[in-house]
Design goal:
The complex is a heterodimer of chains A (225) and B (792).
Chain A: E1 2-12, E2 17-28, E3 33-37, H1 44-51, E4 59-64, E5 67-68, H2 74-84, E6 85-88, H3 100-110, H4 115-128, H5 144-156, E7 162-166, H6 174-189, E8 193-197, H7 201-204, E9 209-214, E10 217-223
Parallel strand pairs in A: 3-8, 3-9, 6-7, 7-8
Antiparallel strand pairs in A: 1-2, 1-4, 4-5, 9-10
Helix pairs in contact in A: 3-4, 3-5, 4-5, 5-6
Chain B: H1 2-15, H2 17-45, E1 57-65, E2 70-73, E3 76-77, H3 80-87, E4 91-98, E5 102-108, E6 111-120, H4 124-127, E7 132-135, E8 146-150, H5 151-158, E9 168-171, E10 175-183, E11 196-199, H6 200-205, E12 216-224, H7 230-238, H8 240-244, E13 251-257, H9 258-261, E14 267-268, E15 271-272, H10 277-305, H11 307-319, H12 324-361, H13 372-398, H14 402-407, H15 414-449, E16 460-464, H16 473-482, E17 486-492, E18 502-503, E19 507-508, E20 519-524, H17 528-532, E21 536-539, E22 552-557, H18 558-563, E23 573-575, E24 582-589, E25 604-608, E26 616-621, H19 627-641, E27 650-651, H20 652-658, H21 661-695, H22 697-705, H23 710-744, H24 755-782, H25 785-791
Parallel strand pairs in B: 6-11, 8-10, 20-25, 22-24
Antiparallel strand pairs in B: 1-2, 1-12, 1-13, 3-12, 4-12, 5-6, 5-9, 7-10, 8-11, 9-10, 14-15, 16-26, 16-27, 17-26, 18-20, 19-23, 21-24, 22-25, 23-24
Classes of the chains: A alpha/beta (225), B alpha+beta (792).
Chain lengths: 225, 792
């Protein structure tokens, strides 16, 4: 599904140039659950942003589902992203002004799904995430675990092929964290490819494969048994 | 998607109540102010629009050349109208009327009422659009003593009586008139105003002087045939007077179209300046847009200042597939929504404030929400506000990088901060200009109002002569003096404060050949000098015997004496046109200001006349006497000596004040709108200060922990804003100076612009800004540093 070759990303300030990704090459197959680990500043989040087409690389190739996307413009990236990729963030990033239902509905609005279909799909996914009873609540009325469930519901409602999760349990206690990891595992078992950035060895153990980064390069790959 | 936007907008609005209040309140004041001004502008621009033929209706005006200037008169010879009608093929109709209006006493039963009106030819009814509710315009003036009245006058004279046509009403206690028509009330924004109309023939018969080509005392209205080019008619009119009266002065008649009567009635040296009331219309239109813009700036500043609060939403929406365009549309939509809510509140403000505004502008404006143009206008203003206010924030917010905002990286605010600062500078620049202009306009009006006019306008009462007042003048005068309240009483043919009869056809020994000077002539009784407060500088006052003296004896003003050459003017002679009559100077009085209160005093000749030739009585109340009691005394005397007429009077100082109506209006409106502009600017500044304090809360916490004082922190937070106000002053001062300097140039008698006006305006702006900001600054400085540092 994903093939990146010699990917490079630099951050420049007036005086310093930082290499975030240094000729990084990796592949992720459809249906895989991959964890990316490494110390702070190793390029994990940069990689995830590029994979999620929120950012573009400076050099190298990024092939997504057989299409070279490394130099797509913003409009094309947005289009590809909204149909194929779901995001889960550490800080949930729900919109405070919208209810649970409306937050989950948002990706469907941007992909032009009809209102009746939206209701059906949002209810389906809320049900699956067991937060149907909270559908009319606002994010600030929910616990952290519940908020992350809503975020995951929002990430999967469009039935994406790929879910990118950036430290999805970082803001949760261990019990809620485990619940979230179970959810992600379920989704993966149902066929969704998942790439997750994490600092937690515990969470990484849920994945099939761990890619360890250091200074923008892969230093080790562990296949989980 | 639209529904989703509306939902987010509405919830964001209700969640951030203070922010929404500042925006909506500021914007609604702005929209309400602008709408009120536009209502006034609409009324001004639509002047005379009730008259359907206005594109073809003209007033004949006349340029007369004098030594140093050309004066454009609005009065023309009495014999000119019929001659134009007979000789110029492009003219459909002409109508002569007396100039201005006349007040007459109407009595039905025992209830005498004054009403004002005009003597007009019957063509008046076809030239102007005057719908007859009763009677027939074609036959209204077939009888000499006919009377056409307005609906309002009908109510005044006859109450709720129906079938007024054919009723008789006694006018001036002398003659009965038959009502032959009742016409719909004239709209307030019509140049031609009256309560009654009478046949012109009556005026013509009692005014023999009208028959000369050399006498200009009438208004001549001309209706051109459809399709006739006024330029062609103007060519024919250019030498029209000389053609009929070769000895007449060099004067040229031209057409002045009805569309321009109200707004463009300003002439200089015989040419239209393009100015007049239109200048005020333009000025206030600009002020309306400035106020709206100031309100929009608040929105832009608050929206971008609180952008951090919206940044995450932008990031999430972008991640979920929103593109820049759809986000920009969302924010524009929010601004439009906010503006629409403000528009609704503005309607409430308009309804509440309109009565006071009407009082201010002396009009009866109505919001006219049943008028589709008003609704479209209001929507237009609202949409423009929404688009302007939402333009920059939408571009700014929609351009956020989702990666940065979702990571919580502090946004680089530099560009937006500069723009915000620039917008605050614009707001305060406009406010400071308005403050300076307000002070200078006020000073100029006070300057003219306190001008030494050359006569004493205070405690001087003007009473129109009615009934037997002229005949019984001597006994009235004696009775008034005997009351102990009155110092002296005099009669005059013209109001002392206004312009009046004048002539340029005079010669005297030292007058340069070909010189043309306009000199006013006044016919008065000898008491006039003392009663008015003029000073006799040389020679003697007029006496009753001067009335019939041959040659005539006259008093002249100082400037007339100067015109007549060096040395004493006493004994010098002035000759009339064709040397038919001459007059000898027996005394010289000081110059006095009349007609144009901003102009220099023009020369005047006073002649002694019999009471029957005068129109007005002047009563000087003793300086130490109470006005109320004195008026009662005057009323008692007049009731006794002239019982058939109600007591009608005016104070000369009131007449004086009324001469500054336009300037007073500008002064009052500029005061109100400057204050509002500052209030709106301060609302924005208040919000901006709040967000700045919020943004710098961690810095404040650290500084406090390190030992900063509350006053030091408050100063730190206020300093940046004060710098902006100071920059605004630096921009506003030269602009205001240049604008006001050119405004003052329009007045001959004017003030100098003093430096302290700028100092006062600048300090006022700074003081207001300090008060606005300090609340937020002190609040932030007083906050507990533990809280702010823990939250990071």
């Amino acid at each position: 599904m994903i093939k990146i070759t010699n990917l490079e990303k630099f951050y420049r300030t007036e005086e310093v140039e930082t290499i975030a990704l240094n000729k990084l090459t990796m592949e992720v197959n459809t249906g895989e659950f991959v964890a990316i680990m490494g110390p702070s500043g190793c390029g994990k989040s940069t990689l995830l942003n590029i994979l999620g087409m929120l950012d573009d690389p400076d050099e190298g190739s990024y092939v997504f589902n057989g299409i070279e996307v490394a130099h797509f413009n913003e409009r094309k990236r947005a289009d590809l992203r909204k149909h194929n990729i779901g995001f889960v963030f550490q800080s949930f990033n729900l919109i405070d002004e919208l209810t649970v239902f409306e937050n989950v509905e948002l990706p469907l609005i941007y992909t032009g799904v009809t209102a009746a279909e939206r209701v059906k799909r949002v209810e389906e996914v809320l049900d699956k995430m067991q937060i149907m009873h909270r559908r009319n609540h606002y994010p600030q009325q929910l616990s952290g675990g519940q908020q992350q469930r809503v975020a995951i519901a929002r990430a999967v409602v469009n039935k994406p092929k790929l879910i990118l999760a950036d430290e999805p349990t970082g803001n949760l206690d261990s019990s809620n964290g485990n619940d979230v990891m179970e959810l992600l595992t379920d989704l993966n078992e149902q066929g969704t490819t998942i790439i997750m950035v994490t600092h937690s060895e515990h969470d990484a153990r849920y994945s099939h494969r761990i890619i360890r980064l250091l200074d923008g390069q892969t230093v080790m790959e562990n296949i989980m048994v | 998607m639209f529904k989703n936007f509306v939902k987010t907008a509405f919830r964001s609005l209700t969640k951030n109540k203070a922010y929404s209040f500042l925006n909506i309140f500021g914007l609604s004041i702005g929209i309400a102010c602008a709408s009120l001004i536009f209502l006034w502008v609409e009324n001004e621009v639509n002047y005379d629009s009730a008259h359907l033929k206005k594109d073809r209706i003209y007033l004949a005006r006349e340029n007369q050349k004098y030594d140093t200037y050309v004066f454009t008169h609005s009065s023309t010879p009495g014999v000119m109208g019929p001659a134009i009608q007979a000789e110029l093929p492009g003219v459909a109709n002409t109508c002569r009327t007396n100039e201005g209006t006349q007040s007459l006493l109407f009595a039905t039963g025992d209830k005498p009422i004054f009403a004002y009106g005009k003597y007009v030819e019957s063509s008046f009814f076809s030239i102007f659009t005057l719908p007859f509710l009763e009677g027939n315009p074609a036959t209204a003036f077939t009888q000499l003593h006919s009377l056409v009245i307005t609906q309002k006058a009908a109510k005044k004279f006859f109450g709720n009586d129906k079938n007024i046509i054919g009723k008789s009403i006694r006018v001036d206690n002398k003659q009965d008139y038959i009502v032959t028509g009742v016409i719909k009330d004239i709209p307030a924004n019509s140049t031609i105003q009256f309560e009654w109309l009478m046949p012109f023939q009556i005026y013509w018969d009692k005014s023999p002087w009208l028959k000369s080509w050399g006498n200009n005392s009438l208004s001549t209205y001309i209706e051109l045939k459809p399709g006739v080019d006024p330029k062609t008619v103007n060519k024919q009119l250019y030498g029209f007077i000389q053609k009929h009266e070769p000895t007449s002065l060099l004067s040229h008649v031209f057409l002045f179209n009805m569309n321009d009567w109200h707004l463009y009635d300003d002439f200089k040296d015989g040419f239209r300046t393009g100015g007049g009331q239109i200048e005020y219309v333009r000025l206030f239109t600009v002020i309306a847009w400035i106020i709206l813009f100031i309100a929009c700036i608040n929105f832009m500043n608050l929206a971008t200042a609180r952008s951090e609060k919206r940044a995450r939403e932008v990031g999430v929406r972008k991640v979920l597939g929103a593109n820049k365009k759809s986000l920009a549309l969302q924010f524009i939509g929010e601004a439009l929504f906010m503006s629409f809510v403000a528009g609704c509140f503005a309607v409430v403000f308009i309804m509440l404030v309109l009565p006071a505004f009407n009082l201010l502008v002396q009009k009866q404006l109505t919001p006219g929400f049943d008028n589709p143009y008003h609704i479209i206008g209001l929507l237009f203003i609202t949409v423009i506000c929404g688009l302007v206010a939402g333009s920059y924030p939408s571009l700014y917010l929609s351009s956020f990088n989702p990666v940065s905002v979702l990571k919580g990286i502090k946004l680089k605010d530099t560009g937006a901060a500069y723009i915000r600062k620039g917008l605050v500078v614009m707001q305060f620049t406009a406010s400071v200009i308005l403050i300076i202009s307000t002070i200078i306009v006020y000073q100029q009006i006070q300057h003219v109002k306190s001008r030494q006019l050359g006569f004493n306008k205070d405690k001087l009462v003007e009473i129109p002569l009615q009934g037997d007042m002229a005949k019984n003048f001597n006994s009235i005068k004696q009775d008034l003096v005997n009351t102990g309240y009155i110092q002296n009483v005099a009669l005059s043919d013209h109001a002392i404060i206004y312009g009046g009869n004048n002539t340029s056809g005079l010669t005297w020994d030292s007058k340069p050949p070909g010189s043309q000077v306009l000199i006013s002539q006044r016919y008065v009784t000898p008491e006039f000098v003392e009663t008015s407060g003029l000073k006799l500088l040389e020679g003697r006052n007029l006496t009753v015997t001067d009335t019939n003296a041959k040659p005539l004896n006259m008093l002249i003003t100082q400037s007339m004496a100067n015109l007549m050459g060096k040395g004493s003017a006493l004994g010098k002679r002035v000759h009339g046109e064709g040397d038919t009559a001459s007059a000898v100077v027996v005394g010289v009085v000081n110059d006095y200001v009349y007609g144009n209160m901003y102009g220099k005093p023009d020369p005047v000749m006073f002649f002694s006349t019999a009471p029957k030739n005068t129109e007005l009585m002047y009563v000087r109340i003793k300086s130490q006497k109470e006005i109320e009691a004195s008026l009662t005394a005057v009323q008692d005397v007049l009731k006794k000596d002239n019982p058939a007429y109600p007591f009608d009077y005016r104070f000369v100082d009131d007449q004086f004040s009324q001469m500054f109506q336009s300037e007073m209006l500008v002064s009052k409106l500029s005061r109100v709108f400057s204050a509002l502009a500052i209030v709106i600017s301060c609302l924005g500044l208040f919000g901006l200060a709040a967000y700045t304090a919020e943004r710098r809360i961690k810095e404040i916490g650290i500084r406090k922990v390190l030992g900063a004082s509350v006053s030091g922190l408050a100063t730190l937070l206020s300093k940046d804003f004060l710098q902006l106000v100071i920059v605004s002053c630096a921009i506003a001062f030269p602009v205001a100076y240049s604008v006001m300097h050119s405004w003052l140039k329009g007045y001959q008698y004017r003030i100098e612009i003093h430096w302290w006006v700028f100092a006062v305006a600048g300090l006022t702006a700074i003081l207001i800004a300090i008060i606005t900001i300090s609340f937020q600054a002190i609040k932030a400085a007083l906050s507990n540093p533990i809280k702010s540092l823990r939250s990071e």
